[in-house]
Amino acid sequence: MVNPKNLRCISFFRNKSSIMAEQRRHVKSPYRFMIHPFSTLCLLLEVSFFIVWMWNMLLEPMFDNMIEPSFPLDIVDNYVMVLSQFLLITFFFFLGYIDLKTREIVVDTKRVAYRYLRTFFVFDFLSSELLNLVVFPSEDFQYSSLKFIKYVHVPCLYVRLNTVLNILDNLGQVMKVRQKIRMCFCYIIKTYMYVHFFCCLLYLVPQVVYDTDWPSNSWLVQAQIAPVHDVPVHIIYGECLLLTICYFFGASPGKYVIEQTNEQICLILIGLFGRLYTLYLLADVLNIFGVVGLSESNYERQIAMLKEYMVCHNLPNQLGSRMIKYYECKFQKKYFNEAEILKSLSGLLRAEIFLFSARTIMRKTNVFKYLPENDVASLVSLMKLETFAPGDIIFTAGQIHEYIYLISAGTISVGTKDGIELCHFEDGEIMGLCYSMLGYEMFTAVVIETSDVFIINHNDFFTFLGQYPDAVEFLHEKAVERAALYNQLEDAARKGVDSCLVLLRSGALLEKKRLRPMHC
Known about the structure:
Elements: H1 7-13, H2 16-28, H3 40-59, H4 73-91, E1 97-99, E2 104-106, H5 109-118, H6 121-127, H7 139-158, H8 161-174, H9 179-210, H10 219-222, H11 233-248, H12 261-312, H13 317-331, H14 338-343, H15 347-357, H16 359-364, H17 373-381, E3 384-388, E4 393-395, E5 403-409, E6 412-415, E7 421-425, E8 430-431, H18 433-438, E9 444-447, E10 451-457, H19 458-465, H20 469-494, H21 500-506
Antiparallel strand pairs: 1-2, 3-10, 4-9, 5-8, 5-10, 6-7, 6-9
């Protein structure tokens, strides 16, 4: 099930009402047994995957190459890691994912399985020890097959390097590490893993070529780290790592004369890959820190200016906290000038962007069912989108206001002027009907969490709906029904009955009833 406290989940949905809607969608769907990408179990699987694959990528290239596994390493590698890989491969068939292009959360069994089969399943299977359990028709074929598996085993592990780094970045986000620090750390890990792979390859290839007949001009013999010299593993690894770094970054040809063809080919490949990777790394770093880093720096600068403003005007801490939370939700820690961006676009594009942002109310608000699709878009274009911070009072009991409010995302509490909370309204609900239809406002509306609300003057609203009497009649009935509900809930609350308990259990409330300031 979705974990509402997951930071990635909060960043993706922005408000509790959307998180609860996703929880209900997952639980009520036929795929409720699937693992949701924002669940605690998914996080545990990601941590397990990170540990298992990092272990294998670091040690598997060295086993039967630089070191011989001994107790307890052989137990961990042959049993614990093999079993862990098998379980993880099985779980991946039931692990939902997020389609980054459409921002769709996919938990459909067939789509999840098909995606895994056509992406990483073959590599994960080849990188595991499961093929060793396969019964081959003959010993010669078994020997050739196992030898092939041994050589493709490690490269298949490294296919998942970007996945491991993405998980590491997600874990850093959970621990609230800054984005720039996370990126730098991931680049360092990625670079080291590539160097480590070529370091082990540089020691493996001569062993495969020479077996026991070592020529005196081999660089391993010159360095006295060949298998026949019985040298400690840290010395072998240190010499191989130093030579690999020299060729990988093009810093130096090293201190050894390379005469054997197989060793020269290895170092040429290392140098070529290292040059290409260095160019890619520099371009990627400049691109990210020039674009992503710029928006993040602008956000930090804006927050610093906001804090200075709060100190200068001696604003109370509670108000200051609300202002900072507003900025966090509005900009998601990346500041941009929305007005300048929209101003540079054509009128048609601006209209399309606005209609896209209003897709929730267009889909969930019942009154729009009485209007043709083109007229719905025309009505929405008359509205204005406002973002309210937690604690903001939209209107109070007895107040004269001129607007209709349509909740696009977020949660708003309705209560009496005495502070008695009655119920909550979420995405797609209309507020302000009592004043517009009945001529008076009975109750107070307070924002619970940062909410996006579309606002329209009630005269413009009902003038537009004048040509649709069914829609006006529906809104009138809705206002009368809502006024009766408010009175019923207020009477129950004043009599000491917990009127919110039923709504809380049904999911209509996000939290327990509490006393809120219902007046300015």
